[in-house]
């Protein structure tokens, strides 16, 4: 992502954005994810480009367990904290648009408990929608999931029949357009992947509004990872979180 696009997308000051993409970045403080988002400290930025969603009403997903922990190479009994259940999206089927640039949705996955904290609260599950930009840049939309839904969401479809570690891949169909809340206000900041190799930079847009799903769906994922599969929050190191109401 070039300097102008990153500045427009996240509201990153020019000098800070330059530090992210020049050789001097090696000396800069780490900009890792997740973080503790404090809404009162976020800078409201209504002039940032809106988040436009282009997700289909029907999509066929390939759901599989991503195994990263090699401490148990002979078996499948260890569920590492960096392992997730991932739903792959067909190429070109979905994406988001920000400031005239389209970012293709590659996959979404889940973490329990939520990796980002919001005003001291840690939600039971967080969903990450991972997108790729035209120049290979990574953009992730984060969504907090809470109990209270009646089932029927694409989240329920995926979480309702989770594959075991080393288990067979599942095929699931769902309404991806209804996966996000209607209110699309976002907290935006520059960070990293939350699993190895923790690559930077990643553009994060964390939705302020939570999505309700069936309690049984959340409980099923939490049972699959009884010790959790979430990374702890990382220092801000001078970063400023922007809030874009929408």
From TrEMBL:
Catalytic reaction(s) noted: hydrogencarbonate + H(+) = CO2 + H2O
Keywords (A to Z) from UniProt: Lyase, Metal-binding, Signal, Zinc
Gene3D superfamilies in the cross-refs: Alpha carbonic anhydrase
A Pfam family that the UniProt record links to this protein: Carb_anhydrase
UniProt cross-references to CDD domains, sorted A to Z: alpha_CA_prokaryotic_like
EC annotation from Swiss-Prot or TrEMBL: 4.2.1.1
Alpha-carbonic anhydrase domain mapped to chain residues: 1-245
GO MF annotation, one: carbonate dehydratase activity
InterPro entries per UniProt: Alpha_CA_prokaryot-like, CA_dom, CA_dom_sf, Carbonic_anhydrase_a-class, TAT_signal
Signal peptide positions on this chain: 1-27
Domain of life: Bacteria
PROSITE patterns the UniProt entry points to: ALPHA_CA_2 (PS51144), TAT (PS51318)
Family statement: Belongs to the alpha-carbonic anhydrase family.
Name of the protein: carbonic anhydrase
Lineage: Bacteria, Bacillati, Actinomycetota, Actinomycetes, Pseudonocardiales
